[in-house]
Amino acid sequence: MLKYLLWPIALVALLLLPHGLSFSQQEILVFLTINVLLVSTYRLLTLTGEWSLGHVVIMGVGAYASALYTKEFGLFVPVSMLLGGITAALIAILLSFPLFRMKGFYFLIGSFAAGEIIRLLWKRFREPFGGPKGIKGIDPMPDFSIGIYDFDFFEPISYYYFAGTIVILCLWVLWRIEKSPVGLTFHAVHWQDKLAEASGVNLRAYRTLAFAIASGFAGIGGALMAHYVGTINPNSFDVEVMVFVLTWAIVGGTGTFYGPILGCVLLTVLNEIVLREMGFEQLRPLIYGAILIASILFLPNGLESIVQRLTRKEAKS
Amino acid sequence: MIELLAQTCLNAVYAASYISLVAVGLVLIFGVMGVINFAHGELFMAGAYAVVTFYADLHLPFLVAVALGLVFVGCLGLLMERALFRPLRDNPLGGLVASIGFLMILQALAVLGYGVRMEHIPPVTQEVIVFSDKVRLPLSRLFVIIAAVVLLGALWYFLKRTKFGWALRASAQDPEAAELQGISINQTARIAMFIGAGLAGIAGALTAPLVSVNPHMGHSVIVTAFIVIIVGGVGSLEGAVLASVVYAVVHTFVTTFYDGVIADIVGLSLMLLVLIVKPTGLFGSADRA
Question: For a designed S-S bond to A215, which of A58, A267, A295, B42 qualifies (C-beta 3.0 to 4.6 A apart)?
Answer without folding.
Answer: A58
